[in-house]
Amino acid sequence: QAKRLGKDRLEIYTPELHERTMTRRRTENVLRNAIAEDRFIVHYQPIVDLADERVVGVEALVRLVDDHNNLVPPATFIEVAEESGLVVPMGNWVLHESCRAVVALRERTGLPLTLSVNIAARQVARADFAQAVLRTLAETGLPEESLTLELTESALLEADVATLDQLVQLRDRGVVVGLDDFGTGYSSLSYLRSFPVSHLKVDRSFVAGLGRERGTADGASGSDDLAIVRSVIRLAEDLGLRWIAEGVETAEQRDVLRSLGRGLGQGYLWSRPVPADDLLDLLLPASVS
Ligand code: C2E
Ligand code: MG
Ligand code: MG
Ligand code: MG
After folding, report:
1. Res. 1: pLDDT tops 50
2. Atom 20 of ligand 1, residue of closest alpha carbon
3. Where on the tree of life does the source sit, at the highest rank (predicted)?
4. Contact 4/10 with Cβ under 8 angstroms?
5. Exposed/middle/buried for 67, CB within 10 Å: 0-12, 13-18, 19+?
6. Of 29, 39, 161, 221, whose CB count within 10 A is highest?
7. From the CB of 118, is ligand 1 less than 6 Å away?
8. Separation CA 247–CA 280 (nearest Å)
9. In terms of DSSP H, where are the helices of 71-221?
10. What pTM was computed for the model?
11. What is the pLDDT of residues 233-269, one digit of tens each?
12. For 80-127, what is each residue's pLDDT tens digit?
């Protein structure tokens, strides 16, 4: 049946749409409870220098702990978190918790690890965003230069003048702004010049085809991916930006990336995202050698 929404909006109510609305509402409730009950945890994935494969930093990736103590991946709730605005309190918590954890890791290992945190459009659009970030850094003791805020192309495209101003303010204080999933959004190359971005993250969908030049099951050819990755790296290096290749799973992919330039890598080849304590095991042998 159809349901009237106001004068001229008519929404067709299908069972599928109803199901989706219910799922959304359920997810929103789960998120609300998770925030109230502290049911998020952060996992950390190492970022390595491709040249020597030493860990130089970590990316914070949030997970939700459900009623049965299962870890729920962000893919199932980030969209709802953004739409409902719940991504703001969640994101504040992730930022604070990950800064705290990385400061502890730096102290335990003696390594000057950097921290990358994903920031949603709704978060950065808040008038107090820059202030909140600087306050968290001051409270936890993480140096400004050791924090990278990862924004997506669409988040940057949505940003108004006041938002960009906050990013410039943060950059001037030393905080790094990186462009996540580069190449998957509505890439407008001109914003690389005008936005306060200092590194690019090559999306893992392009990295996947490296070392697989004969093409993939979905019809995408590995040599197309190689051309794209090579161009993105070239672009980054010519603009004086740092680059990180994400989703590196094989030694072949690592070797191809190494041959293309001087950058960083992240992916299952080195480690999946893990709890901070597990990272310690990975880092401690490195720090004593
Ligand atoms: P992202 O920022 O692009 O993070 C990289 C994603 O790729 C992570 O998925 C990571 O686990 C996965 N990954 C890393 N290496 C490999 C690999 O070698 N192979 C494959 N197949 N995957 C790899 P995850 O943790 O499920 O996060 C998904 C997305 O959720 C993130 O993508 C990010 O956009 C979002 N997200 C995660 N945490 C947060 C957060 O705290 N705040 C916000 N706003 N978004 C977050
Ligand atoms: Mg990211
Ligand atoms: Mg990414
Ligand atoms: Mg991604």
Report:
1. no
2. 247
3. Bacteria
4. yes
5. exposed
6. 39
7. yes
8. 22
9. 78-84, 87-109, 121-124, 129-140, 153-158, 161-172, 191-194, 204-207
10. 0.92
11. 999 999 999 999 999 999 999 999 999 999 999 999 9
12. 999 999 999 999 999 999 999 999 999 999 999 999 999 999 999 999
Helix (H) or strand (E) holding 51: none
Each residue's pLDDT tens digit, 148-201: 999 998 888 888 999 999 999 999 999 999 999 898 877 677 778 778 899 999
- N-term to C-term CA, the chain: 69
Candidates 60, 141, 63; CA nearest to 100 is: 141
> Which residue has a Cα nearest atom 46 of ligand 1?
118
Burial of 186 (0-12, 13-18, 19+ CB in 10 A): exposed
Q: Which residue(s) pair with 48 in the sheet?
A: 55, 265
Quick check: helix, strand or coil at residue 224? helix
Going from the Cα of 202 to the center of ligand 4, the distance in angstroms, rounded, reads: 9
Pocket test for ligand 1, best of 118, 216, 270, 274 (most atoms within 8 A of CB): 118
Residue corresponding to tokens 């703001």: 88
Q: Tell me how far the alpha carbon of residue 180 lies from the centroid of ligand 4, in angstroms.
A: 7
Token pair belonging to 277: 């304590």
Helices (H), 125-267: 129-140, 153-158, 161-172, 191-194, 204-207, 222-238, 251-260
Pairing mode, strands 40-49 and 264-265 = antiparallel
Contact status, residue 119 vs residue 93, Cβ threshold 8 Å: no
Output the CA–CA distances (angstroms, integers) from residue 143 to 44, 45, 48, 49, 276, in the order listed: 18, 20, 20, 20, 19
CA distance 31 to 247: 27
| AA identity, residue 256 | V
- Residue 229 to residue 210: CA distance in whole angstroms: 9
* Ligand 1 contact, 78 CB (< 6 A): yes
Q: Which value does ipTM take for this structure?
A: 0.98
